[in-house]
Amino acid sequence: MSQPLLVATTNAGKLREIREMLAGVPVALVTLADWPGLTAPDETGSSFAENARQKAHYYAAATRLPTVAEDSGLEIDAMAGAPGVESARFGGADSSYPEKFALIYGRLRGVPQARRTARFVCALAFVQADQVQFEARGIVEGEIAPEPRGTGGFGYDPIFYYPPFGCTLAEAGRRKSDVSHRAAAFAQLRTYLLSR
């Protein structure tokens, strides 16, 4: 019988990807939509890993379910690693992604393309019985595209150019799941869950 596993996110794009990545693992995925009264914790960590741990502990304690939480975002070298852990809140919690893109392009004005290197980072934590049982990290290296392109994916995908594909992740289609930071982290979780 499948064990319940809470995936601690309300982001529909992330949930869709995570469901695909964990297909075939004997777990019954539960989402935060099943806990509508639950408020989100403050994300006060200085790293993706700290935030993932905080969220996993918080939601596991609140629901008494084994919980996986992730924190992920975009690091741009020419912006000293920003937006980093503030990726979702960059430009203000209510700013749209086109507004976030405009802020980034404003800050990168005058920066040559060769220095617009960037990466997506994903850290995840799996908590069960009040303990972190497993952690993983995934990274995909690329650069900020000259302008947003593509309608696939979500979040910062339209401005993240992945050189091996010659396109942004928003243009990559299903190939994105082969290389994404989230896919890399959840592939490790998949292996761990199947080995238990």
Plain-language structure description:
The protein is α/β, with parallel strands linked by helices and 196 residues long. It has one domain (3-195): Maf protein (Alpha-Beta Complex), CATH 3.90.950.10. 29% of the residues lie in helices and 26% in strands. The protein is built from five helices and seven strands. It has a seven-stranded mixed sheet with strand order 2-1-3-4-5-6-7. Strand 4 (117-128) and strand 5 (131-144) form a beta hairpin. Helix 1 crosses helix 5. The relative contact order is 0.16. The model has no long low-confidence stretch (mean pLDDT 94).
Q: Key features?
A:
196 residues; alpha/beta; Maf protein; seven-stranded mixed beta sheet; 5 helices; globular
Q: Please identify, by name, the CATH architecture.
A: Alpha-Beta Complex
CATH class label: Alpha Beta
Order of helices and strands: EHEHEHEEEEHH
Mean pLDDT: 94
Q: Structural class of the helix and strand makeup?
A: alpha/beta
Query: Total number of helical segments?
Result: 5
Count up the domains: 1
Largest sheet, order of strands side by side? Answer: 2-1-3-4-5-6-7
Q: What is the number of strand segments? A: 7
In percent, how much strand structure appears in the residues? 25-35%
Radius of gyration: 17 Å
Calculate the terminal CA-CA distance, rounded to whole Å. 14 Å
Estimate percent helicity. Answer: 25-40%
Query: Which shape, going by the Cα principal axes?
Result: globular
Q: Strand count, sense and closure of the main sheet?
A: 7 strands, mixed
CATH fold title: Maf protein
Low-confidence stretches: none
